[in-house]
C-alpha cells in the first residue's frame, strides 16, 4: 500500500509544526546572560543549565525532515503513476511556490543554526581573557524567528503539493482523453 497525498501532507505539516514548537521553546528557554566569575587573569562564564542548544538542533532536524518530505511528496508516484517533472514545472504557480519553499527552508535553517551554534560555542568556550566580558549569549529573537520561518516553509511545501496534485490530475485527465500535453 502506497502513501496517499493526504498522508504526505500530514507528514510534511507535522514535521514543520514540530520544528516550529522546538524552535519557540528553545527561544523561550535561552538564558539572557551568564554569570561572570572573575579569576586571576581570566573570567569564567557560568551559564544556567538550559535545553536551548538541544532544542535548537532538534528544530533544525525537523526542518530538514520536513523539507525532505515536502520535496519527496511532490515527485512521489501516487497510485503507481508518476508524472514527468516538466509537467509540474509548466505551472508558473507551482514553480514559484516550489522556489519559495526552498528559499524559506534555507532561511529558516540559517536563522535556527546561527544562534544555536553561537550558544553552543558560548557554553563550551566559557573562559575569557578579557576581564570586562559580560558573558553574552546568542542574539535574542533569531531562534523564534527561525521557528516561524520553518513553519512557513512547511506551509509553502503544502501549497506546492496541492499545486502538484492539480497538475497531476490535469495531466492524467489529458492522457485519458488522448489529448497531447
UniProtKB/TrEMBL annotation:
Pfam families reported for this sequence: DUF1218
Q: Which UniProt keywords apply?
A: Membrane, Signal, Transmembrane, Transmembrane helix
Stated membrane topology is: Multi-pass membrane protein
Q: Does the keyword Membrane apply?
A: yes
* UniProt main location, coarse: membrane
| Signal peptide extent | none
Q: Where in the cell is it found?
A: Endomembrane system
The GO cellular component terms are: endomembrane system
Membrane-spanning residues: 7-26, 54-75, 87-114, 142-164
Does the entry feature the keyword Signal, yes or no? yes
Member of which family?
Belongs to the DESIGUAL family.
Instruction: Name the chain's protein.
Output: SHK1 binding protein 1 isoform 1
Source species, please?
Hibiscus syriacus
